[in-house]
Every structure is written in structure tokens, then in C-alpha cells.
Amino acid sequence: MPRDNKSGLIQKIAKQAFITFKDCRSASSGDGNVLTDKLNELISLVTSVRAKDLKMMAPKNRPSSGAAEPQSPPVSYMHICETEVFSMGVFLLKAGTSIPLHDHPGMNGMIKVLYGKISVRCFDKLENSLTVPPDFDPQLAPLQTAGVWRSVLRSVAEYSENSGPCLLTPVRDNLHQIDAVDGPAAFLDILAPPYNPDDGRDCHYYKVLHSVTEPGTGGKVDQEQLGEKKENEGWLLEIPQPEDFWCGGEPYPGPVVDI
Questions:
Q1: Residue 212: per-residue pLDDT
Q2: Average pLDDT over residues 73-88
Q3: 3 state DSSP class of 214
């Protein structure tokens, strides 16, 4: 008798994700806590998943310019399942491509590399205690200042299929940029709860700004306005989705998941 696909590892991951996040309230209400024992069980399961468990394999190397072909999406997504509690799928990045810096409002997340290698830069927003941001290079238009946020760079790390998952919470490592390193890459992606613009969980994109009014730049500094600059703190500007980034769709080849 053939083995029931629903008893496979990816089904176990989906079931545990539902159990882990079903009682987790949105951070918009001030509580994004997840029970540690349930989360640890999910982390253990996700750490063990490999591309073969999803009937996937890394694409064969072929000569490339290091960028996506014209008119070809730089990133593709394989949908696995989605409920009100969580969504799960696989992102595939071509060699030399990135998922731009973006946020996950009120959401928990987990990334596990299936093949290849990725670099992840994680940021968090800070409370804007300054009424007027410092000057930037290039200079911002007046209307853009409303989309400027103080931020902190939390971490920069590389992940491969042998690494554990990269985690994000509503209050820690919530913004990240993901770059494919030394070739194509794919990763399992779990978000809880899923993106939902009607529920205040839309995806926003950002770019890192460079201030010219900080000590050592030659600019005139009002230290009271500037505030105490701490290591890895900076500024982000909310921007539209970058024109060179879009996400295509691909069929998911793995076992059926039933929640």
C-alpha cells in the first residue's frame, strides 16, 4: 500500500503550525506571544525538512549573467496551504536576485532554506522621537518625510539547507531583506497570521536612508534634535514596491496538506 502523503513531514509541520499559532493574537492588540514549547516543536520539525520532502530539487547549474532573464520574474512562489491562522509556501529565488526589504505587520514568521544559500538582513522600526528627521543624501521630498522611520539593524546572517530556521515576530526582526547567495535558492515560508490588508496586515517596502547630519559628516548637527545615535540605528523610508521586483507563481509538486 502506498504511504498516505498526509502523514508526511510537511503535513506534520502544517498541523504543528496551526497548533502553535491558533491562540496567538495579533501584535496590533499588543500581544504577539507564542507558547515556547509549541514553538520549539515547530522549530524542530521545520529544521528537519529538506527539498526532497516537498518533491523538489535544486535546478542544475547553467551559464548565467547572474540576473533573472528579461520578463522573467526574479522570484516565484509555490502555494502550499493557507488558513486564517497561518500560510505556508515556498519562495524560489533565481541566482543574483533578492526579495526587497519589507515588513510583516503583527505577524510571526519562519524561513527554512530547502536548497542554495540566502543572506537575511533583519531590521525593526523604533519609535520616532524626533519631530523632524535629519537631512538625507539624496534629499527627500517634503511629502516623503511622513514615511521615514527610525530603525535598528538587528542581524545579518546566511542560511543554508543545513541551518535552522530564521524567525521573526511582531516585535523582533520583523523587517527583512532576503538575497540569493552564489546561485539559486528556495526556502519554506510560514507566516502567522497570513497577510491580509483588510485586517491591517499589508506588505510595505522600505529602503535604507543615509543621513548627512550626523557627527563626522561635516553637516551642522543639532544634538537635541538628532538624539543619541546608537550602534546599528538608522532610518528607513517606506517606498512603493520596487519596479524590478515581482513574484510569479509555480505549481507546488509536493504532498497534499490538509488542515
A1: 62
A2: 97
A3: coil
